[in-house]
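Annex B.
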Amino acid sequence: MNTQKGFTLIELMIAVVILAILAAIAIPSYTQYVDRAECEDGKALITGAANFMERYRAQNGGSYANASLNGFGSNSETFGVVITNAAAASYTLTATAQGRLNGNLTLTQANVRGGSLAGQCNW
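Type IV pilin protein: predicted structure tokens.
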């Protein structure tokens, strides 16, 4: 008597359906995790830049004028930070997303937070 070895078409289709269900659950969860991680990277970078600006003000007679982020690592894989609107008593930092996210985060000397990613990143 000949016994056949292998899988039937129905067994293979059941395996494919199970894999599809697992992928449908796992892929959106993974992308949400990656987005949250990139948001945290941006928030950490802009907060570090704000600390750098406060050190600059303490070393320069209480003024933010002519400040630059040259001594601060102002770029990461996912965000880049620049100073905008720097004056003697105020500044605005803008962290622009360079990875999967699309938008920016802003922070002022008065700790006013904003930007197009503020809602998505819980900023």
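The two ends are 71 Å apart (CA to CA). The longest helix spans residues 9-59. Further annotation is deferred to the next reporting cycle.
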